[in-house]
Fold these 2 entries.
Entry 1:
Amino acid sequence: MPFTPFHLGPALLLSGLAPRRLDLPTLLVASVVIDVRAALVVFGPLGGPVHGPLTTFLGATVVATLVAGAALSLPARLGGLADRVRPDATVGTAAVAAGALAGAWSHVLLDAALYHDVAPFFPLAGNPFLVDAFGLVYGACVAAGLAGAVLLAARYARSARTDTS
């Protein structure tokens, strides 16, 4: 997607549906970090196709592994910042790993739905997810983001009431 923030919509919804199973900060980072390479292609320093090796399930799995490793190795001070956006104060390794994988793979699925140059199952050719319906996919991303924000807001409100009781 040329506008990376659209990837945050499905990430928010996924986290809202499974907040204890998917770590929100890790999920959000993993859902957009893949576009760093695409931005480097679009804006100059890298050559090649915009949707390259990271926009495959294999490449996204490597990215997810790196994101999860980075999230799990954050110093306590930085980890405390991430805790502020988590609906639940404690998060385990499995939730961080699952969040990273869900974020990275959702990125591949969204890009595969829109772009002819995405080969999600590389080294196999083809893209079975291509729908080529930009308005539909962007609209679904916005709707998912709104629904996810409502779910997370309700969870935060419940958590705040529990903390003050």
Note: The chain has seven helices and no strands.
Entry 2:
Amino acid sequence: MPTQSFSSISSLTRFGLKLLARVKPSEIFLKSISKEVTSVQVTYPPSLDPRLVRRRLRHIAMSGTILHKKYLVGSVTLLPLTSAFMVLPLPNIPFFWVLFRTYSHWRALQGSEKLLKLISNESTPDKPDATDDADESKNNKKPEQKSQSPTCILLPSEELYQLIREASEEGLDEATIVEICKSFDLNKNDVLKYRNLV
């Protein structure tokens, strides 16, 4: 009897890990952007145009907002249906999975909106209000401009460019990806998962 329960727990664990492996790396990335984040720093090869990098980030943020809003509504809709399984004397895996996905999509949506806000904020000085302009013109003084720190910092990296250039023509092999992950402190599994999805 104990061996049967142990094998059912281990098969349940394997099933759970398979489900978690299906979560997209872009969702993991967006979930990592919390409300406390005040700036984002992007390292890219200098062969790329910085405007293209910024545009790609904006695309990730906008598509993440649309996608996770849609999935959040779908997950919330499924919660009452899966809660009906609570009457069964078994673990309600569908309910807990949908509950986890609801929270996950909510976090990814928050991260998408935060990333979009960080990318949209330019590192230009704040513009004074029209009322401030009128008051300042009366006093014949120039309006003071507050300097704002950049919220999106793009850093071209020659080291990254060299690592990519040394890779084969067919694309980045696993050894190169591992080297890049070591150099830039990235999660190898997430990067490999993203490469396999693309």
Note: Strands lie at 40-44, 152-156.
